[in-house]
Amino acid sequence: MIYTQDKVNLHTHSFYCIHGTGRISEYVSEAEKAGLQVLGFSEHVPLPDREYRKGDRMTYPELPFYEKDVLEARRTSGMQILLGMECDWLPDEASYYRDELAGSRGYDFLIGAVHHMPNPATGVEKYLGRIADLPVKTLLDYVDIYNAGIASGLFLFCAHPDLVFAAYRDWDSNAVSASRDIIRCAKQYDMPLEINGYGLVKPPVETPQGPRPMYPVRRFWEMALEEGVRVVANSDAHRPEDVGRTMLGAMSFAASMGIKLCSYEIDLNSKTRVKVL
Ligand SMILES: [Zn+2]
Ligand SMILES: [Zn+2]
Predict the structure, then answer these.
(1) Most CB within 10 Å of its CB: which of 103, 108, 133, 148?
(2) How far is CA 243 from its chain centroid?
């Protein structure tokens, strides 16, 4: 069945990630109220072989509980519910993502993302939304990592490519060329990029060009539009009540720029299950 973007949100968290609140079933109720027909859950990925980013995601032994809750929602709700995961791009984990999550565990889709880069003050990895002065070198490293995620071919789409501009705030020639590199890579691999509505409900950031939302970043998406890359929009809700409003925010952002959003073909009995059209 084909769904237009206004009926689909494939980026949803829950209490399972610790920095989110609300049960899976509460997100389903809110999504129903918001008029969505397809809701995909995409928790932050835990790793089997090491504790990764402890405290901002479920642990690996909790995976079956998350899966059970999502599949229970699929059985009991009137919506199309999809089981997914938001995967930080870690090359060593590619086979875990492909063979276990998308393979034996039967996930319907995986999202690619890069959330953390070394904090210039300490050298220790930190969430990009909490860094204000990312050096150019780290911006370039982000582009390399993000683009390797795109090129892996494991993901249905790649999330919030412009999150890095929460940390690298000046819209200078480095920002322009970093954006162009990501957008051209997405175009080359025909990988959809995500306008993420969650950044619109976070505190705005100060930049040399004045205050702006943490993300999505207009200048980035102007370039994406120009290049003709495929674009999806998602809520990235971390609270049940955010499903509708951040989805609407992401959709309005796209509409205000004249960006045409993709549709989806969903057939859970087919091999590909979910396809971005
Ligand atoms: Zn999160
Ligand atoms: Zn994310």
Answers:
(1) 108
(2) 14
- Closest among 122, 150, 154, 149 to 138, alpha carbons compared: 122
Per CATH, the number for 2-276 is 3.20.20.140
What is the Cα–Cα distance from 194 to 153, expressed in whole angstroms? 16
Q: Which ligand is closest to the CA of 86, given by its number?
A: 2
Structure tokens at 221: 């998406």
265 token code pair:
């073909």
The residue length of the chain stands at: 277
State pTM to two decimals.
Answer: 0.97
Which ligand is closest in space to the CA of residue 16? 1
Enter the DSSP assignment of 46: P
Q: Name residue, tokens 């220790």.
A: 124
Write down the domain spans for the chain: 2-276
- Percent share of the chain, pLDDT over 70: 100
Q: Give the Å distance between the CA of 266 and the centre of ligand 2.
A: 23
| Burial degree of 86 (CB within 10 A; 0-12, 13-18, 19+) | buried
